[in-house]
Design goal:
Blueprint lengths: L28 E4 L11 H8 L4 E4 L11 H4 L3 E5 L10 E5 L25 H39 L4 E2 L12 E5 L5 H10 L19 H5 L4 H5 L1 E5 L6 H17 L7
Parallel strand pairs: 1-2, 2-3
Antiparallel strand pairs: 3-4, 5-6, 6-7
Length: 268
């Protein structure tokens, strides 16, 4: 890690970081507000408290606009947001920097973006990100209720098709993102499910989108200590504010067809 000594925090079987009390004196901290594969909400307040004033970065890409998150009150030195997670175009994001935090330029040259990143600004992208953030914050609570209801509809329907399916991440709805369902089915590799569902016109992922194409099982699920079949048979289903009940029903129809085609009888 470029000469840095890295201390990795352990996680629970639900994928939640375990915060030790002896983090004071560390040089810099990094923690997600929510995991990108399981949707598990992370103990960012406890992390900030354990650091005792040590600067830290909050990866808020998955959480921003999905849960209540006050970056100023949280005390992080920096935080990252990504536009396409909120409905803005791909290729635009934002870096929250607390006043007084020294930041080295990412790209040197011109004075754009207060001297922190040279190059012509993506003005349409920036405007779109601002509008998307406003909409996400305005509609967050209603959207969360909507997506959480759809997520439970999906999970209950899938369990009716495959009772042996397991959900990966926290069981309690208030401890995970409302739009993410990570699940495993026995006897079928996640990549096989992804491809089979794709042929049915349904897009899901095995792991995170940023790791698509990787052949190794999810390091997130491995770190949780899950059994091999849950790691290797996991898929992630993501919902959005625009997802409708009929979309969930279409997924369940496709999953039932795939499950039957793979030789697993309905309900088995």
């Amino acid at each position: 890690a470029a000469g840095w000594r890295v201390r990795w925090l352990p996680v629970t079987p639900e994928g939640v970081a375990e915060i030790p009390p002896d983090l004071q004196g560390e040089g810099f901290g990094v923690l997600q507000a929510a995991n990108h594969e399981t949707g598990a909400l992370q103990p960012v307040e406890a992390f900030a408290s354990a650091l005792g004033g040590t600067p830290w970065h909050c990866d808020a890409v998955q959480a921003w606009g999905r849960i209540a998150l006050d970056l100023r009150a949280l005390g992080c030195a920096t935080a990252s947001l990504s536009g396409h997670k909120l409905g803005a175009p791909k290729g635009v994001g934002a870096l929250f920097v607390r006043n007084g935090t020294p930041v080295e330029p990412l790209l040197r040259g011109g004075p754009q973006e207060r001297g922190r990143r040279a190059g012509t600004e993506n003005v349409p992208g920036v405007a779109a990100l601002g509008a998307a953030c406003q909409a996400a914050l305005r509609d967050r609570e209603a959207d969360a209720r909507w997506m959480r209801g759809l997520a439970e509809r999906l999970w209950n329907g899938l369990r009716a098709i495959c009772p042996l399916a397991a959900r990966n991440g926290p069981e309690e709805p208030d401890r995970r993102l409302p739009n993410t369902v990570n699940l495993s089915v026995p006897g079928v590799a996640g990549e096989v499910l992804v491809q089979a569902l794709d042929l049915e016109g349904v897009a899901v992922s095995a792991g995170s989108a940023c790791a698509s194409g990787a052949t190794e099982p999810s390091p997130v699920l491995r770190a949780m200590g899950l059994s091999d079949w849950r790691v290797e048979g996991a898929i992630r289903v993501s919902l959005g504010p625009g997802t409708r009940p009929e979309d969930v029903d279409r997924f369940l129809e496709a999953f039932a067809a795939v499950w039957a085609r793979l030789g697993r009888p309905a309900g088995g």
